[in-house]
Amino acid sequence: MKFPRLRTICTITTGLAVLSAAAGCGGSTTSAASGGTGLEKTHLTVGALPIVDDAPLFLAIKNGYFKQQGLTVTTEIIPQSTLAIPDMLHGTVDIIGSGNYVSFFEGQAQKTFNIRVVSPAATCTQNSFGILTLPHSGIKGPAGLAGKTIAVNIANNIQTLTANATLKADGVNPSSVKYVVIPFPDMAAALKAGHVDAISAVEPFITGAEQGMGAVPVMSQCTGSLSHLPLSGYFATAAWAAKYPHTAHAFQVAMQKAQAFADANPAAVQKILPTYTKISAAAAPHIKLGYYPPTLVPAQVQRVADLMLAGGLLKNRLDVQPLLLH
Fold it and tell me: Is 202 strand, coil or helix?
């Protein structure tokens, strides 16, 4: 099924000059623009989520990192990363940004598609990923979530997986919780209206719910064995990566630089958030940020697939190493 084209919000054009940059994965290379020696494709469309995970993507555009690699990148804001999969498979979206690893690894294991992880996006920290509720809900911690309804952006994804693992670790039967799919931008309204008892959110929606309606956190989804768990990455099809290897590498080099810049410059991340999310400039400095890894670390990404196996989302162990673009 082909989804409608999504809203284009940011385009940056580039010339055809040849520039060099540091390469990902510990090496170095020179990426040439399409003026004669390099990229198979110079104009890319990236589906992006209005969350903090994608801040490096927009910083890469703003700071000219894609331009340095001879790329023109256009972003299309999507409410859920999986909604862009049909466009990715049809070739109208080149790369999906900040897709949660669980949904894409699940599709890979089921042979729905064959993907490659082009770049990491975000790794969670204790305050950047968790469950919130209203102060008068009576829910004070994980035990209070038993029998409750929790909003998640996508079913059977990184949210439900980490929530179930955390609940189980706290002695709560995960099967007692009901998950309801509500896009991130609509979660606060659903919580306020009483349609759900709690929401599983990431930034900037955590701060938005806290400041907008006084929501309070009751459970982190990034503590204990889940501490610093990789959450999301940039995905392309294996066929796309094979057809455009130099282009894929150029994108990876630009994102490596952007990820490192974002992690070292939280103020720059907070400043760019209002340009592609609904977070206000006044609220942006209060956003709690995770970690932006510059390169793909197989052992870390493997943690997600292993957690999926333990949580019943995979029938067999998935080796992520062949899926990572190097």
Answer: strand
